[in-house]
Amino acid sequence: RNFFTKRTKELKPAVQSAPGWKLFGKVPPRENLQKDSKLIQQEYEARTGRMCKPPPSSTRRKNIEFEPLSTTALILEDRPANLPAKSVEEALRHRQEYDEMVAEAKKREIKEAHKRKKIMRERFKQEENIASAMVIWVNEILPNWEGMRATRRVRELWWQGLPPSVRGKVWSLAVGNELNITPELYEIFLSRAKERWKSFSETSSENDAEGASVADREASLELIKLDISRTFPSLYIFQKGGPYHDLLHSVLGAYTCYRPDVGYVQGMSFIAAVLILNLEEADAFIAFANLLNKPCQLAFFRVDHSMMLKYFAAFEVFFEENLPKLFLHFKSYSLTPDIYLIDWIFTLYSKSLPLDLACRVWDVFCRDGEEFLFRTGLGILRLYEDILLQMDFIHIAQFLTKLPEDITSEKLFTCIAAIQMQNSNKKWAQVFASLMKDNKEGDKNHSPALKS
């Protein structure tokens, strides 16, 4: 009668600390995780009454909700003496269930082994392609850059992604150095930034000859410190004490002194970080300054509302051309491009996409210019068109702000390739130029998010 008395008393606190028990293991308590894109989709389906597809019906044994740690524990050959013995039918049934479970486990192991082999084969193939491409870039293309960069063969090879070993060199050549910045000039602005950091740390008062401008610069430099810790936090290399923390701080600080008219704007740290991962310090600064001097980046980082609206209007022209159903769906909710495009353009997709995929987007962006940034945006919308068509305003905005982490370069670039950047025989540059001509009035009310 008191067989389990002591045991149940001992287990009471443990039972209270967890939501429940399963066979051979305790269910861990739930964690408050940040919502990802799949949770957003499921939440929307639950709210609108659309149920997720149920799992396919199967046999009773395939619906087991646990993974047993010991298969032999499921079959008791002999029950305790104080319990009735198994009947022959029950013993046979248990044996059959055990054999089925073992067979399923073997099938699963074989399937997982095949999957691992397939992944390894694809990885080896990819590495071989990268190695062969690297030889072509190093021996043929880079020595004859000006003559070969625009050829069809090089452009096709470029589209497939640059080998990591030559990526930084190709980016530098493609971005160029119209500003004629030298490594010596970088050192000058870096030393100036260090002097200001030192003076800011030594004096807490703002009673300076420059008055409010010093306070503004101080706020800008403080923002750099805050943003560096939030740049690729999962990599840890840019966190305080990491190998690239001071380097990123130096490049961004030097830029604020080089371009006080622009200063530091949130989002710059991601662009500088990607360049630092692929280039030496001075070269990263040169590429960074020249990249931010391009018309599109300058418009966004200076928050030139008028120019930003032109870019959004041009984007919508090609959005309607390529994805008319989704365009009308967005229009019905008054969902304007600035809601999702600003973050994508500010960081050149380095914050929104996995880093390796973002680098491949950068590859073609360096080849094709600003047009490819908006083409990539349309490619993302095309990739998730079916999902987005089922969502409302809030869930679309949440989904596009935090894209799925399992997005692959093959799927995305297939969708990007399907996007036609031509409208009524006009290419991106022509459409944008025509918008610039007749932009004297009326555009300021187009995008609510930019009225401020």
TrEMBL record:
The protein in question is named TBC1 domain family member 12
What stretch or stretches form a coiled coil here? 88-123
Q: Start and end of every Rab-GAP TBC domain?
A: 161-369
Q: Which GO terms describe its molecular function?
A: GTPase activator activity; small GTPase binding
Check the record and name the InterPro entries matching this protein: Rab-GAP-TBC_dom (IPR000195), Rab-GAP_TBC_sf (IPR035969), Rab_GAP_TBC_domain (IPR050302)
Pfam families for this protein: RabGAP-TBC
Q: Report the SUPFAM superfamilies cross-referenced here.
A: Ypt/Rab-GAP domain of gyp1p
Supply the alphabetized keyword list. Coiled coil
GO cellular component terms listed in the entry, alphabetical order: cytoplasmic vesicle; vacuole
Question: Domain of life here?
Answer: Eukaryota
Q: What are the BP-aspect GO terms?
A: vesicle-mediated transport
